[in-house]
Specification:
single chain; about 60 residues; about 0% strand
């Protein structure tokens, strides 16, 4: 999975919500449409696009 910067996510969603199509937004920002919809949903549910915490890596020893 590719990690996108918060700035890129915010700019892409602003562009999308500004009336551009998902196809156009996807091409302009070089991100997948699935990512756009996930970010849009996250923004609606959490009011921001902060990074989600990643799972911890456990090491034995």
């Amino acid at each position: 999975m590719t990690c996108y910067s918060k700035d890129l996510r915010e700019r892409a969603i602003k562009y999308l919500l500004g009336g551009h199509t998902p196809n156009k937004t996807s091409k302009v920002f070089n991100v997948g449409k699935t990512a756009l919809w996930r970010w849009k949903k996250q923004l609606e549910e959490q009011v921001d696009l902060e990074d989600k915490p990643r799972g911890e890596i456990f090491q034995e020893g």
